[in-house]
Amino acid sequence: MTIIAMLDYASVLVFALTGALVASRAQLDLVGFAFFACLTGLGGGTLRDLLLDRTPIWIDNPAFLMVGCGAAALVFFTAHLFESRYRAILWLDAGALGVAVAAGAGLAENLSQPPIIVLVMGIATGCAGGLMRDVVANEVPMVLKQGELYVTCALIGSAALLLSPQIGVPMASLACAGITFALRAGSLVFGWALPTYKPRPPRK
What we know:
It comes from Pelagimonas varians. The chain has 204 residues and is mainly α.
């Protein structure tokens, strides 16, 4: 199994857990859990593959669907054990973001795509599944929440994957995942954020 395949499996599993936790907050049935888990776990990878003119990972290998459904079943019977399901979603999502960005950017680089496409594929793979989850659940998407880094984490992580070989850092995928997660975790814990637009009255 390749590194990219392992990263894909890991990102599908962890993102699927967040989707199932969202379904638990909405008090859905087991089919609803499976829908949210698969939508979240496979959304980013599907978008990446379609943009790169590849067969989506879950069509090429249905085992990815089983991973999503397995995560849904696990959460269906254990969600009540979490003291704060929203907090669990935040941290699982942060971990999944790092792994998914590494999978998306790494695959694009392996296909000899130009650097700008590598950056876009890292962002798309990391952000699309969670965006779909939140939109369908009628919640404010995490990628758009004011005062938090999210897409920026994916962008910097993807750039780290591109730069790692140039500066002699081994295991570029792990560096990408680690930096992406560290930035997202810092945003959650310390409130790291980019400056936001402040409206001002027009000049007379």
